[in-house]
Amino acid sequence: MAVACAFARAQSAGAATSTEVVAAATGDDVPEVRITAERLDRARNGLSPRTGSSQYTFDERDIQALPEGDSTAFNQVLLQAPGVANDSFGQLHIRGEHANVQYRLNNVILPEGITGFGQALDTRFARRIDLLTGALPAQYGYRTAGVIEIETKNAFDRGGRLGIYGGSYETVNPSAEYAGTTSGGLSYYLSGSYLHSNIGIENPTSSRDPIHDHTDQGKGFAYLSKLLDSTSRLSFIAGTSYGQFQIPNNPGQDPDPGFLAAAGVAGFNSADLDETQREINNYAILALQGTLGSGMDYQVAFFTRYSSVRFNPDPVGDLVFNGVASRVFRSSFTNGIQGDGSYRLSEKHTLRMGVSASSENDKSENTSTVFPVDPTSGAINGPAFDVVDNNTKNGNTLVGLYLQDEWHPSERLTVNYGARVDRMDAFVKASQLSPRVGVVLKATDRTTVHAGYARYFTPPPNELISNKTLDLFANTTNAPATNQNDAVQPERSHYFDAGITQQLTSALNIGIDGYYKKTSQILDEGQFGQALIFTPFNYEKAKVYGVELTANYKKDNLSAYANVAWSKAQATNITSAQFNFGPDELDYISKHWVYLDHDQRYTASAGTAYLWQGTRYTVDAFYGSGLRRGFANTEQLPSYVHVNAGLLHTFNTGAFGRVDFRASVINVFDKSYEIRDGTGIGVGAPQFGPRRGYFAGLSKVF
């Protein structure tokens, strides 16, 4: 059951509040197709109860109420939810955790890809986005800090939309959507977008215009659904994203004199570095979903995903600054199946069960140019040479089973209890039985209380460095400080969550939610090498806890929301991938509880939208008290506030039809704020938030 306040949005009768695909029906059978498909949607969504967890929802109107509408990057949409902290490279931290986020499309798992900084998903194809946190029911496994359930658009009417959006930093963002339903029961939705910008990732300086930060990105998405009969359908989802990024430069940096001499180079301007990164993500889902009689619903799905990251260094510049120039390629190819079912035993009991299994094949190809080093003196003693390190690891498997019962002892009380069993066989082998229980009490007509407990099992990502790799770099300028490299282990945790929501008036809702997570072998990731690719490691013990407050107001043409979160994330003793750390840092962390680098004490978001004389005016903002910095994360970055504003107006042009005009200002007050300063555990370089930008766009619905 959802127990958190929903995202605020402005609505008004007779006013256009969305640029969703819509037009007139085109066949006598289309209304029947729509009714059958919507009934199957409800049955599919009923396979995944949310009893005891916390849910925050964005629908199409909510997304259109953002200053940039559906041109908003997916991670920026989620920043408006409670407890979601901003980070560099497009990363988000939910409830004080590094990543540990699971994406699902129409209730089917989207396998995890290689970590980069591009957004693999396009906001445009989302009909609804639910962020689930807390003590999750048993169908949710592996990545559990937050589950992002995306219900995709699947329009049943023929129509489409063309749009163009752009502005500051040479931003150009055209997009298109098209959807329809045939009389034979085939529904389809297609979308595509392209982004060109001179801000691809965060600027390493506070300047308005970053140096060497160009990006080109493309995304495509397709949804097809065929009704087989009145009780079943076959659906197919396919998506792709491609991103080409320049790595921005930090001028005024001095190369190492010893590396300069060894390379035979007189000097090198850091503003002239030429590093690039390419990222590819392709995914597909084929699902059969239906009902058997009056009591049984099911969905069986096959899913696949390919992702890759290729980093190209500046062959001379990286060598004279870092002592190593690495050409890095990593790819992951995952295939799997997922089956979910529910059976209504009685009016008071609904039994749900499921299974998932996946196999991942990983490839790592690295060619690093380094200098040889004399093992006795530590001096460079020869010309640069290449170290080639190519590895594959096939058949990394994950298998999970779950069984749970949703019990209604009374009209006002719901209890969902069950367990799941997970087993992994990859770089390490491990398994766990994980009990779950969630309770929701409708204490009064206006008051809802929830509580839950979950045991979690989180496998490490397969982006690992082997001992063989470390040995290859012995006596070179890329040798690690230590060769200790214990295997990365799965994370195991106990999670407790409780909260209450209160409807104060017909227009105003408030909520409070608290959580506590006790963990062994907590997983974290850091950028330790030259490439912007992350490496996982474990802390022996960790504790993460916090409180979230939400409020939501909607009345007439005005809506508003506000979220405030307090959290604390600490850990001690690094137990794997120790070669990434200096001896003094390892020693300190082994004896102290340190803050995780993504710990941010206070996080807040707020927004309001008002519809006046046919124009919707929107303002939103997010606040961060600052992530961690310094030796062993002992210091904190300064706090900041980021404010955006926008408007949306619909013109009815007569013969040309409906045209939507949008204008927005990002970082209204042009605040310069630092997300990272290049220090802290696993932090590679400084990153600043974007400076003020002006944008506008038109979209035509047809």
Question: Which overall shape is indicated by the principal axes computed on the Cα atoms?
Answer: globular
So how many helices? 7
* Overall pLDDT confidence: 90
**Name of the CATH architecture:** Beta Barrel
Counting structural domains, the number is 1
Structural class: mainly beta
Number of strands: 34
How large a portion of the residues is in β-strands, by DSSP E? over 45%
Distance between the termini: 37 Å
Characterize the largest beta sheet: strand count, sense, and whether it forms a barrel: 22 strands, antiparallel, barrel
Spell out the CATH superfamily: TonB-dependent receptor, beta-barrel domain
Radius of gyration from CA coordinates: 26 Å
Query: Low-confidence parts, pLDDT < 50 over ≥5 residues?
Result: 1-28
So what's the CATH class? Mainly Beta
Helical residue percent band: under 10%
Q: Say what the CATH topology is.
A: Maltoporin, Chain A
